[in-house]
What does this fold into?
Amino acid sequence: MRNFDHELAFAVWFSNRYFDDEVAYVKTLSHEITFATSHTKEILGIKPKTNLLENKSFTIIRDQIIQVDEVLVKNMSDAVVMESLLINGSIQIFYWAKKLISIGGEIYMLVEQTVTGELSAKKLLGNQLRPVPRYYSRHQVRFSNQEQCVMYLLANDFSIEEIASLLFITAGTVRTHVYSKIIRKLNMLGYEISNKEEASQIIELLGYGRNMPDKLLKSIRPSSYIVRSL
It folds into this structure.
């Protein structure tokens, strides 16, 4: 844990560490904001002397935030935390490095945006079983929105049955998409593919497993959970 003798020493360190266009803030263990970069105020709407849990984007997941923070404080550990937040009517996904620090003998939590987390479609969508569509163009081949959803899920290791549940279609319909449409179109592009496993590999190589289609993104609920310890 990094220690600072007093608040002024931390303020100097904080202003030198983060640029205005970075997202970082500091809060007390009761979730009062004490420091925040300008960009944090712009995109999250939080500022010093306000309570994070009273912000409408965070209120909806306040119980999860409290639970995550309690784990970190209890274990005196730092972690990468994923939060899917409802901002301006749409879900946005953030990865935070949450780090405990000491200022004048009091424990605070430093929260900074990080790119070290890895988006897990299984974690985001797997418990709900029941960026803009990207088109790859060659020889006039186009994949429909539904096909792109199936391709994204295939590339992220979802089974036929799980895909059917997420898209509210039958397993037979998923197989039709995979074998009669997606594989056929991939072969039109020059790939010699005969099964789902080979298709999944090519789909991943083409990049269809990277950007979650809007239809799937809309099904993600606001949440907060620990990805890994630091």
User: Anything to note?
Assistant: The beta strands are 2-4, 24-28, 33-36, 79-87, 90-103, 106-113, 223-229. The first strand starts at residue 2 and ends at 4.
